[in-house]
Design brief:
Elements (H helix, E strand, L loop, with lengths): L2 H13 L1 H13 L1 H5 L3 H8 L3 H17 L1
Helix pairs in contact: 1-5, 4-5
C-alpha cells in the first residue's frame, strides 16, 4: 500500500474513531438489527444527522476503493 494512502486511511480512522467504536459496539451486540438499520437509526444512536451518516459512509467507501 502506498504510504500516503496508508496515512490518509489512518487519519480517517482517527477522525471517525468515536463513530467507528459505537457502530462496532452495536454490531457486536446486535448483528441482525445492524444489517437492517436505517440511516435515521444510525443517526439517533450516534447523535448526529442522517446526512452526516451518509457523508461519513461515502467517505469511508471512497477511501476503501482507493486501497
Amino acid at each position: 500500500m502506498d504510504k500516503e494512502l496508508e496515512k490518509d486511511f489512518l487519519d480517517m480512522i482517527d477522525a471517525h474513531e468515536r463513530v467507528i467504536y459505537k457502530v462496532c459496539y452495536f454490531s457486536a451486540k446486535n448483528h441482525d438489527e445492524l444489517e437492517d438499520m436505517s440511516y435515521q437509526t444510525m443517526a439517533d444512536i450516534l447523535g448526529t444527522t442522517t446526512n452526516n451518516i451518509g457523508v461519513k459512509l461515502n467517505h469511508i467507501r471512497h477511501k476503501l476503493r482507493k486501497m
